[in-house]
């Protein structure tokens, strides 16, 4: 499989509109409050009847300090004791949800996100994993994909050793940028020594995959300064990179209002940074997985993409397409059977529902047949950059050309621009179209027209 990308500035400028990141289809915007505890239980029952492995996501919302660019659901506090009541309720939710899922279903994927999961102290981490093991069937053979997001400022060798002991084998390090002026502008002061000590410790402890998170488009960034950051990280050759485009939406995220907009790089500088990143990473031997992600050719994501087994869920790209995803903790989103489910966002509401023995479901959506069909189309395109008409027709009993006649007509302009090729057998995204894969997927999104203004730019 060709995993190259081509940076065409003219195409990028013409197609750089707002759109979803498609960690799900329909997107989270379609979840509604008419879906609650009872509906979720029905889908769990149907999921148990179908069987199959599980994926667990835990939201740990606490952070020691606020990063001004952050759009995550978080609670800022320096008092570690503030995590105890939340952990009590999270363990109760684990027990409630665990009782609903068949114990014969192995947990092939597990992820702690946040916030800052390493905000938790050692005893709290042990308790959380022990409670999970008590109520779900965690693997003991180290063959699952058990990952965690860490802040190197909150992590040391002892923490890394503990995480490996608890069963984690993949780790993602938040970095964003090493430039001192940029770090000060976004209130995230982090040294090279802190970052690389954690990366090296993870390798020594036997973590199978290491990822570095970077963000381009932050205040005071230039091509040169971001290249310096990237060069420093490339000396350590992490297995994966996540290079995100910063979406400045201060009307939605209050912490972003502390960023001086006059310091923001221009759209042209952001494009120049992206082009530089693509060139440097491909020259260093990384392949473009899609949607901001690069990986070494022998990484599981790159291998899965070449084998047509890559999947995308609320945590990003994954190799476990066969797993139902169970979300735990405030604001977490899951996918069970033919439904997406989101927990309540407010801590006091979460406390109240857990105290009453209720699942903390805030909203959800049940997918209809058209949703499932379009999800399959979008998933194939965003994961593999190609689509087989025959496969979709066999799985959904449709005539692709008839069902998607309008969409195929819309794709003609993209084909003329060299983004993709539509043939008798399917669709193949070409190198210039891979950076614009969100635009291609948007053609098949029936909900998009009235929601476009709520999404970030695709580049």
Automatic annotation (TrEMBL):
<dbReference type="GO" id="GO:0005737">
    <property type="term" value="C:cytoplasm"/>
</dbReference>
<dbReference type="InterPro" id="IPR007197">
    <property type="entry name" value="rSAM"/>
</dbReference>
<feature type="binding site">
    <location>
        <position position="114"/>
    </location>
    <ligand>
        <name>S-adenosyl-L-methionine 1</name>
    </ligand>
</feature>
<feature type="binding site">
    <location>
        <position position="188"/>
    </location>
    <ligand>
        <name>S-adenosyl-L-methionine 2</name>
    </ligand>
</feature>
<feature type="binding site">
    <location>
        <position position="70"/>
    </location>
    <ligand>
        <name>[4Fe-4S] cluster</name>
    </ligand>
</feature>
<feature type="binding site">
    <location>
        <begin position="69"/>
        <end position="71"/>
    </location>
    <ligand>
        <name>S-adenosyl-L-methionine 2</name>
    </ligand>
</feature>
<dbReference type="InterPro" id="IPR010723">
    <property type="entry name" value="HemN_C"/>
</dbReference>
<keyword id="KW-0411">Iron-sulfur</keyword>
<keyword id="KW-0560">Oxidoreductase</keyword>
<feature type="binding site">
    <location>
        <begin position="115"/>
        <end position="116"/>
    </location>
    <ligand>
        <name>S-adenosyl-L-methionine 2</name>
    </ligand>
</feature>
<keyword id="KW-0949">S-adenosyl-L-methionine</keyword>
<keyword id="KW-0627">Porphyrin biosynthesis</keyword>
<feature type="binding site">
    <location>
        <position position="333"/>
    </location>
    <ligand>
        <name>S-adenosyl-L-methionine 1</name>
    </ligand>
</feature>
<feature type="domain" description="Radical SAM core">
    <location>
        <begin position="48"/>
        <end position="284"/>
    </location>
</feature>
<keyword id="KW-0479">Metal-binding</keyword>
<keyword id="KW-0004">4Fe-4S</keyword>
<dbReference type="InterPro" id="IPR034505">
    <property type="entry name" value="Coproporphyrinogen-III_oxidase"/>
</dbReference>
<dbReference type="GO" id="GO:0051989">
    <property type="term" value="F:coproporphyrinogen dehydrogenase activity"/>
</dbReference>
<dbReference type="Pfam" id="PF04055">
    <property type="entry name" value="Radical_SAM"/>
</dbReference>
<dbReference type="GO" id="GO:0006782">
    <property type="term" value="P:protoporphyrinogen IX biosynthetic process"/>
</dbReference>
<dbReference type="InterPro" id="IPR004558">
    <property type="entry name" value="Coprogen_oxidase_HemN"/>
</dbReference>
<feature type="binding site">
    <location>
        <position position="149"/>
    </location>
    <ligand>
        <name>S-adenosyl-L-methionine 1</name>
    </ligand>
</feature>
<dbReference type="InterPro" id="IPR006638">
    <property type="entry name" value="Elp3/MiaA/NifB-like_rSAM"/>
</dbReference>
<feature type="binding site">
    <location>
        <position position="247"/>
    </location>
    <ligand>
        <name>S-adenosyl-L-methionine 2</name>
    </ligand>
</feature>
<feature type="binding site">
    <location>
        <position position="213"/>
    </location>
    <ligand>
        <name>S-adenosyl-L-methionine 2</name>
    </ligand>
</feature>
<comment type="pathway">
    <text>Porphyrin-containing compound metabolism; protoporphyrin-IX biosynthesis; protoporphyrinogen-IX from coproporphyrinogen-III (AdoMet route): step 1/1.</text>
</comment>
<feature type="binding site">
    <location>
        <position position="67"/>
    </location>
    <ligand>
        <name>[4Fe-4S] cluster</name>
    </ligand>
</feature>
<comment type="subunit">
    <text>Monomer.</text>
</comment>
<keyword id="KW-0963">Cytoplasm</keyword>
<protein>
    <recommendedName>
        <fullName>Coproporphyrinogen-III oxidase</fullName>
        <ecNumber>1.3.98.3</ecNumber>
    </recommendedName>
</protein>
<dbReference type="GO" id="GO:0051539">
    <property type="term" value="F:4 iron, 4 sulfur cluster binding"/>
</dbReference>
<keyword id="KW-0408">Iron</keyword>
<dbReference type="InterPro" id="IPR058240">
    <property type="entry name" value="rSAM_sf"/>
</dbReference>
<dbReference type="GO" id="GO:0004109">
    <property type="term" value="F:coproporphyrinogen oxidase activity"/>
</dbReference>
<dbReference type="Pfam" id="PF06969">
    <property type="entry name" value="HemN_C"/>
</dbReference>
<feature type="binding site">
    <location>
        <position position="63"/>
    </location>
    <ligand>
        <name>[4Fe-4S] cluster</name>
    </ligand>
</feature>
<dbReference type="GO" id="GO:0046872">
    <property type="term" value="F:metal ion binding"/>
</dbReference>
<feature type="binding site">
    <location>
        <position position="176"/>
    </location>
    <ligand>
        <name>S-adenosyl-L-methionine 2</name>
    </ligand>
</feature>
<comment type="similarity">
    <text>Belongs to the anaerobic coproporphyrinogen-III oxidase family.</text>
</comment>
<feature type="binding site">
    <location>
        <position position="57"/>
    </location>
    <ligand>
        <name>S-adenosyl-L-methionine 1</name>
    </ligand>
</feature>
């Amino acid at each position: 499989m060709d995993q190259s990308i081509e940076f065409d500035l003219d195409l990028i400028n013409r197609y750089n509109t707002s759109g979803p990141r498609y960690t799900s289809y329909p997107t989270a915007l379609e979840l509604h409050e008419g879906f609650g505890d009872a509906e979720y239980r029905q889908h769990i029952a149907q999921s148990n009847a179908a069987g199959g492995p599980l994926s667990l996501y835990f939201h740990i919302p606490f952070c020691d300090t606020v990063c001004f660019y952050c759009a995550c659901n978080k609670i800022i506090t320096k008092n570690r004791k503030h995590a105890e009541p939340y952990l009590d309720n999270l363990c109760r939710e684990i027990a409630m949800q665990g009782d609903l899922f068949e114990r014969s279903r192995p947990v092939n994927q597990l992820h702690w996100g946040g916030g800052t999961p390493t905000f938790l102290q050692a005893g709290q981490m042990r308790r959380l994993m022990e409670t999970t093991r008590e109520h779900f069937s965690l693997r003991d053979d180290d063959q699952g994909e058990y990952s965690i997001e860490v802040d190197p400022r909150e992590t040391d060798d002892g923490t890394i050793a503990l995480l490996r002991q608890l069963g984690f084998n993949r780790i993602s390090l938040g970095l964003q940028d090493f430039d001192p002026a940029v770090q000060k502008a976004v209130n995230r002061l982090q040294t090279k020594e802190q970052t690389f000590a954690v990366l090296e410790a993870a390798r020594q402890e036997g973590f199978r995959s290491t990822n570095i998170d970077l963000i381009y488009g932050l205040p005071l960034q230039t091509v040169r300064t971001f290249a310096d950051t990237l060069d420093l990280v490339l000396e350590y050759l992490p297995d994966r990179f996540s290079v995100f485009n910063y979406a400045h939406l201060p009307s939605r995220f209050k912490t972003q209002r502390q960023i001086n907009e006059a310091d923001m790089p221009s759209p042209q500088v952001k494009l120049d940074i992206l082009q530089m990143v693509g060139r440097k990473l491909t020259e260093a031997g990384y392949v473009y997985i899609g949607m901001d992600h690069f990986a070494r050719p022998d990484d599981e994501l790159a291998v899965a993409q070449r084998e047509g087994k890559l999947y995308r869920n609320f945590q990003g790209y994954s190799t476990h397409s066969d797993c139902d995803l169970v979300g735990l903790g405030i604001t977490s989103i899951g996918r069970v059977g033919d439904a997406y489910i989101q927990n309540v966002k407010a801590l006091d509401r979460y406390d109240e529902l857990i105290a009453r023995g209720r699942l903390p479901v805030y909203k959800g959506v049940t997918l209809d047949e058209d949703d499932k069909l379009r999800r399959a189309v979008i998933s194939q395109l965003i994961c593999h950059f190609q689509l087989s008409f025959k496969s979709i027709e066999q799985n959904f009993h449709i005539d692709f050309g008839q069902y998607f006649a309008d969409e195929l007509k819309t794709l003609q302009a993209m084909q003329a621009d060299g983004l993709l090729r539509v043939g008798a057998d399917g669709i193949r995204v070409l190198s210039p179209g891979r950076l614009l894969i969100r635009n291609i997927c948007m053609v098949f999104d029936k909900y998009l027209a009235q929601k476009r203004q709520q999404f970030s730019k695709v580049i």
